[in-house]
Amino acid sequence: MREGSAGSGAQLSAAPNFSHSLFRAAEPRPVDHGPCEIQTKMFLFSAAAGLLVLLGFYIWTFCPHLWADCSYMWRSLRLGFRLKGYKKSKPFYSILDQFLDSARRRPDKVLIHFEGREYSYAEVDRRSNQVARALQAEARLKESDTVALFLPNEPSYVWTWLGLAKLGCRAALLNFNIRSKSLLHCFSCCGSKVILTSPELLAAVEEVLPTLRDQGISVFLLSDSCSVPGITPLSDKISKASDEPLSPELRANVHIRSIALYIYTSGTTGLPKAAVITQEKMWAASFVQAACGVTTKDTFYINLPLYHSAGFLIGMIGSIERGISFVLKRKFSASQFWDDCRKYDVTVMQYIGETMRYLCNSPRKINEKNHKVRIAIGNGVRTDVWTEFLNRFGDIKVRELYAATEGNIGFINYTSKIGAVGRVNFVHKFFFPHMLIKFDIEKEEPVRNSEGLCIEAATGETGLLVGKITWRSPFVGYAGNTVQTEKKRLRDVAEKGDLYFNTGDLLRFDHDNFVYFQDRVGDTFRWKGENVATSEVADVLTTARCVLEANVYGVKVEGHEGRIGMAAVTLRDGEDLDRADVYKQVVNYLPTYARPRFIRIQPCLEMTGTFKMKKVKLVEEGFNPALIQDPLYFLDSEKKTYVPLTDEIYRAIISKELKL
């Protein structure tokens, strides 16, 4: 028993050592990788890294804009879903509601910087309440009434519009440069019975006051007093009005398709037309800033007139949508521009037409790149000016746009590719279907096939841009002008019964999906069986040292088909027309048919308020030296220069003695 007991104890005492050896045997042991396995893993890692490098190289080489495309499409989709939400919201959520929310959340944030003064969101909100109450009392305004705003760029423009929006009223934004017949025309288009103006424009209103009185139209002046009978001063009544919020019931019937504004076309080819801007279109236009990458931390610079869609919709309304501050200028000033940008820490600037060229023509300064501007939004900049602007003023992302106030299709060059006005992608085309179609310049109509349908232009070919009219991309038309509205509608484009908006613009899509503006229909003319783009000819003329600006157009010559090229030009200060240099430029860079045969020297070119050149009068006046007081020149191919256009030369042209 003892021996057995003793043996058992020995076994128990030995048990822990045995168990420990088992535990150690269960521990993971270092794996001894052979040379082949290590080499295999290194090869796989190197191959994966190489594939990533090749993929990156492929994307960089063949898809250099992939990231920009994806980023832009993502922003566009988000904005599209937002707009869809506003369409369905009950009650309707408007830009005004967005402003009111910003005023509640950040009442002390500056909305407007103007000539050394700051106006916060809360202050603008209160002032707009006072304007609404004063107009409600004096003009007896009610929902859906229209008020014509004939005002310069000043802060009162902003809160006056907001006050009208609080009453559910529409605003007609009148160009403050128009007078007499044009002013009455614009006023009558919108069906307004009230016009609101300022002291500096009083003389223009007085000129048409008898007609306004005859039509029963009330005229209000933003001043404390007025000595002109029939004009009611309003400022004193505004200052005495309550600034308490107004009931949303005053605008209860406003919805996504309600008319918000009337914005007038520039009138380059006749009297301006009143484009109808709905609440939906106002929202869509306000998204341009967001689509271009503007954030809630930016400060926007508005130096364009608020009566224009760029200044009002993209600038002012876009800033309200972003909830940011903006600097408002009475008018564009190249000499003050960069000083303002530095003073107000501007990060986003706006341009249109020739404004960027004016900046490039300003005297050079040492601190030209000393600013915080990172984005420029606008349209109409020439390629050479674009390049010079970047060289002089730094790495600014230029977001060149293509759009029309009344249109249903537009593009944004979100890649900053110099010269392009936009870029095509499948998301954009899905939401805004469009086509480039072949266009007959001479007949000024689309080319159709045997079935009566339009023919799509090939990639790289210039064509007429048309946008399909759908519930998502509508075309409302022009107020009080059914004839012009119908002219903009194009039927049977891709299939029988479809309906498209005719932009009237000739564009080109290249093989990389970039969009290039070529010319406007009517500006482009046909000579010697070839199409001549006026913008291209103007660009070449301005490369001559003496030429400051050029307005190119085609004029009729009796006995000849088509129209021959002519240019009205202005000269740089202290310069005479360097006929040899101008001849050298047009011969070196333009084909024979595109060279302007006539040049007219003018002290200044007639332009619209948004720097678009007027051509109608010039075309009508032609090139007869007996009727034109300005110096005229004729391209003499034999003498290889431009010579003064005399009565003898004119008669030789008309009698066909001199061949063109």
UniProtKB/TrEMBL annotation:
Gene3D superfamilies membership: 3.30.300.30, N-terminal domain of ligase-like
Q: Gene Ontology cellular component?
A: endoplasmic reticulum membrane; plasma membrane
Keyword Kinase present in the record's keywords: the answer is no
The reaction(s) catalysed by this protein are: a very long-chain fatty acid + ATP + CoA = a very long-chain fatty acyl-CoA + AMP + diphosphate; tetracosanoate + ATP + CoA = tetracosanoyl-CoA + AMP + diphosphate; a long-chain fatty acid + ATP + CoA = a long-chain fatty acyl-CoA + AMP + diphosphate
Question: What topology in the membrane does the UniProt record assign?
Answer: Multi-pass membrane protein
**Record-listed E.C. numbers:** 6.2.1.3
Ranges for domain AMP-binding enzyme C-terminal: 536-612
| Signal peptide annotation | none
- GO MF annotation terms: long-chain fatty acid transmembrane transporter activity; long-chain fatty acid-CoA ligase activity; nucleotide binding
* Ranges for domain AMP-dependent synthetase/ligase: 101-424
Mainly resides where?
membrane
Q: Where in the cell is it found?
A: Cell membrane
Supply the PANTHER family for this chain: LONG-CHAIN FATTY ACID TRANSPORT PROTEIN, LONG-CHAIN FATTY ACID TRANSPORT PROTEIN 2
Q: Which family does it belong to?
A: Belongs to the ATP-dependent AMP-binding enzyme family.
Name of the molecule in the record? long-chain-fatty-acid--CoA ligase
Q: What is the lineage of its organism?
A: Eukaryota, Metazoa, Chordata, Craniata, Vertebrata
